[in-house]
Design goal:
With about 325 residues, the chain is mainly α. It is built from 15 helices and seven strands. The strands form three sheets. Strands 1-2-3 form a three-stranded antiparallel sheet.
Length: about 325
């Protein structure tokens, strides 16, 4: 059975957009993706909830409850919102209209002989240096968990531009007394555009916002191609809260993995991850595991079907190289 989590993620995000659209159109009061709920009961975007209290300079019970609930969900699911629910990736697909798809060379899978998109060098034998790195990376610590604590610590210390945007968003909210970032948040702009279109067709409501809001949204998507990875303060906030996350982590079966079982190069899981995480070699990762969006791209990309994402890895079960990051 062919696995295609990317298509499933797109369908999920589209379904959420459709639900919100129907909610706006029928006035069911189901809220938005930034404040899902029913009628007067809703859960705020965590950044919006925090901004509400900073803007008012006081504790707001509704915002505090929402913030706590969302923080618990982030700890449990990490950045799954980014991978499965956020509408921004849908809007980013507009870039495909202006760019040509990259051509990738096809070769046969070293496992089943079927054509795969990869490089011929990927199935070459490991070099001695690579074998040594793999051996040290696959060693288990005193607790029976695999991983490189020093590498994990180093990755976790990285500070990127998103943290500065997050700090600026919160500081500006405190200074000006209203959530400034919400004016340009692509998530909010996406649903504001939907609401404007609903008002246009349902009530004939024509305002300058109908032009300005979509224009800002499209400009952000086209000009800032790596918004989610380099600028989004919400993803930065979630990655900070998600550090204790231990669920749905990629688990590698060393008996199936091409590198450990056959001594061949692969790296498909690391290349597939849009966040720059390498499940097989954490020392090569560009991001900490708190950045994982649970997108399952690494699972789909593995030619040997050696990666799974259980709710919680069972004791004694083959584990990936990430479990030591505590």
């Amino acid at each position: 059975m062919k696995r295609d989590s990317k298509k499933l993620r797109t369908i999920t995000a589209l379904a959420i957009v459709a639900i919100v659209f129907v909610g706006f159109l029928t006035n069911l009061g189901i809220g938005t993706i930034s404040a899902p709920g029913i009628w007067d009961i809703s859960i705020l975007c965590p950044l919006g909830a925090l901004g509400t209290m900073l803007a008012s300079k006081m504790m707001v019970p509704r915002a505090m409850v929402s913030l706590v609930i969302m923080m618990v969900l982030i700890i449990v699911f990490a950045r799954a919102f980014c991978g499965w629910m956020c509408p921004v990736p849908l809007v980013q697909k507009l870039r495909g209209i202006f760019t040509k798809p990259e051509k990738q060379a096809k070769t046969k899978s070293p496992v089943d002989g079927k054509p795969v998109k990869t490089a011929a060098a990927d199935i070459a034998p490991l070099t001695e240096d690579e074998k040594a790195a793999l051996a040290s990376g696959c060693e288990k610590d005193s607790k029976g968990l695999a991983g490189c604590a020093s590498c994990a610590k180093k990755r976790g210390e990285t500070v990127d531009a998103r943290h500065f945007v997050l700090g600026g968003a919160l500081l500006s909210t405190f200074i000006f007394g209203f959530p400034v970032f919400c004016l340009i948040c692509p998530i909010g702009l996406t649903f504001a555009t939907i609401l404007l279109l609903v008002n246009l067709f349902a009530q004939g409501d024509v305002t300058w916002s109908l032009i300005v809001v979509p224009a800002i949204l499209i400009a952000e998507v086209l000009l800032f191609k790596r918004w989610c990875h380099e600028l989004c303060p919400l993803s930065a906030f979630m990655s900070l809260i998600a550090k204790p996350n231990r669920t749905f982590k990629p688990t590698i079966d060393n008996a199936k993995c091409l590198e450990t079982a056959q001594g061949k190069k692969c790296g498909a899981c690391g290349r597939a991850c849009e966040e720059g995480i390498d499940p097989r070699h954490p020392e090569l990762s560009e991001a900490a595991w708190s950045e994982c969006t649970k997108c399952r791209s690494c699972v789909d990309a593995c030619p040997a079907h050696a990666i799974s994402m259980p709710l919680i890895a069972k004791k004694g079960e083959p584990v990936s190289l990430v479990e030591n990051e505590k």
